[in-house]
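Question: Send over one sample?
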Amino acid sequence: MTMRFEHKNMENQKKGVRQNSVADIAKTVLQIEAKAIQELIPRIDGSFSEAVEKIYSCKGRIVVTGMGKSGIIGKKIAATFASTGTPAFFLHPAEAVHGDLGMIVDGDVVIAISYRGNTEEIVKLLERIKRLAVTLITITGNLKSILAAQSDVVLNIAIKEEACPLGLVPTASTTASLAMGDALAIALLEKRGFSEEDFAAFHPAGSLGKKLIKIKNLMHMGEQIPIVRQDTRMRDVIYEMTRKGLGMTTVVDEENRLVGIVSDGDLRRHLQKHKGLLDRTASQCMTANPLLIDGEELATKALNIMENAKITVLIVPNKDGTVAGVIHLHDLWKTEMF
């Protein structure tokens, strides 16, 4: 028994050493990659500004290209551009020299990602790029490379070391490439004045886009809005509430301006207090000054108001005080934004 215990204890000690070693390795990797990004900051200079300007004024598309791990980073950069208002796509350089070169046309801007700057497949694209007089921006760690020499703009992402102890696996270099691409995309986003509404338009099916939907795009309007007059008898008020199916109705004056609402909750409260509920009028049973929300506000704000006030409906007014629409909690649930 003693031998078994000692053996198990030794195994635990070995595991402990190994776990600490793994944690140390992970921390070192993150420190090296974080340092690689930090060292890019002083290099955001005139070349970066020139690259942003050339992309911003591009009349065509942004064509991002790269081989291997750089290609994977290139796909992400192209996707980020496209989703933030800059038309872009990824072109695999090996496929390009086998027929896809026609994707590069006059007016495009090519962004080539190659840490060494001498990637054979990308170098082969130079003839087409130069013949079309297409702008070439290179993201590289080698300022003396073929691509750097042939580029209109060079963005320097040179690193001191890879996070891989062998110095072979692209790690810090690909992180630096990705960070530089993100910097370009966000700088362009700001320069274009890209808004939340624009983002929602490019992401209609995503959870982020759903959270940016405006009230005016979800609210009930026109004949869908339950409306009664102040002097409407409660039997007719209940009919209107049932017919429109929102569990409430707006109450308006002679000029159709909102003065209150009657909700299911109001009905229950008045039933407890008054026996002759059906003979009362909407103005006698309504809740005056209901909570309002602007149609230009985001759906997430409506949800927040409803949750805090413990209500299920908000009224969207027009500037003249009439009712523009009604937003119900169920309308927000349908978006699946939460």
